Amino acid sequence: MSANLTEYPFLDLIEEVAERNTSLEYGLEDIVGVTIEKGLIPTIANLTQTALDKFYIVKPDTFVYNPRTHGVRLGMGYNDTDKTFITSWNNVAFFVKEDAKKIVLSEYLWIYFNRSEWDRQTNFMAWGSSTIVFAWNDFLSIKIQLPDLKEQQKIVNTYNAITKRIQLKQKINENLEKTAILKLENMLDDESLEKKTIKIESICEVKGGKRLPLDSDLIENRNSHPYIRIRDIKENCFVILNNNFLYVDDETQKEIARYITETNDLLISIVGTIGLTAIVHKSLDKANLTENCVKLTKMKNLIPEYVLIYLRSKAGQYAISQATVGAVQAKLPLKNIQNLNIPYFDDSIMKEYNDFLRKTFTCISDNLEEIIKLQSFRQLVISRISGM
To answer: Less Cβ crowding at N or C end of the chain, within 10 Å?
Structure first.
């Protein structure tokens, strides 16, 4: 960036949140945590017995970070909404000081924290062995070079415009999926339509993924061997290659080469967060698959889009929950997946619905591909300040 830069220590710019939820104004539904993908998310931990009066209050324009980095990235989030949340005392919440707002924009600071250089710096400064900690005092000691507010605002405006476009495409995809699920659920509830069932093992092969060898680690260096984890499936109908993927090296690939996916395989998570589903996008053809998922491959008689939408419907999710075994360490056995019954209809009904699904999924795939391009463009915007 050619703009003139002025250096400031974070000590002069930010202040730790001291306000706690002592009056219990905020409850379980208001708790947020942070992710290493940089975001605030509703907590998935069971906190019903936790003293919420000790939680920090996260007002709009407040940042949160988890001091424990685990040697990957610093988990951070930014409350860019008009809502107030609370977060665990294990996190650190902070905000831009009032007198520093004439120096730095909160939104610009958030872009700064999304830089890969920031993650490398915080990991370098973190200390510890099994638990690696990036302490608040170390945070405050870091210096940041800032352009004037006008230049900061230009970057923020560009970043926000791209983000809004991404969010629009994501919302369109959510609506497309909801429409497809609702249409199928109405068909299942329609007593005038004749329904049949077929076991999953009759329409495809069900195969597991592969655990990494003990002496192998995933790497961030992009190569031709991406490794699909449960976290990569998320909420999308497709699992698609993006900048958050990790990879295996050539030697590891030789050991697990048989456990790869093909375009249009249907993935199901079987441990941890059970029942997540997604179709393999063409960008992940021949990708490696975690042992925490199975793939439905070489599908016949029913199309993968149909099976996916059924498994994401209320009936499908209930069927998955009934096939899950165990309490403390729940899992979805491969045999139980093979025995899952998939309902279907007469040929004319199926053809009409399948045609609708193919068009819907083409739109979803096109939108996802645009989202990936927009995310890459957004990274270029972020890189404009990478030299600071």
So the answer is: N
